[in-house]
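One-letter codes give the sequence; each number marks local geometry. A record appears below:


***
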Amino acid sequence: QVHLVESGGGLVQTGGSLGLSCAASGIIFDRMGWYRQAPGKQRELVARITSTNSVVYTASVKGRFTISRDNAKTTLYLQMNDLKPEDTAVYYCNGGQFRGSWIDYWGQGTQVTVSS
């Protein structure tokens, strides 16, 4: 059974830092990423890392957020620095497995709130 469990969300002031973790079990993903969804908005990609450690970031977080993955590829991290109120959202861990097309798995989400 595949599981993705996020941890590390919380409340922080503008300019502060938070770290998120996602523990994966059941399979080794070909790619993993963090998405977020703010109230009234669509879920958006924040950052993603592939099995070859290629990374992409959405423009609004470049230079502030860092995605990484442990060598065993079972834990995904997101270090968030210089947080802004617009970073407030539920953050979801995503794991993707390619079997001719992408099969996506999701964690339950963790709330990040940045106060001004």
Q: What stands out?
A: DSSP finds no helices and eleven strands in the chain. The chain has a mean pLDDT of 96. The CA atoms of residues 21 and 77 lie 5 Å apart.
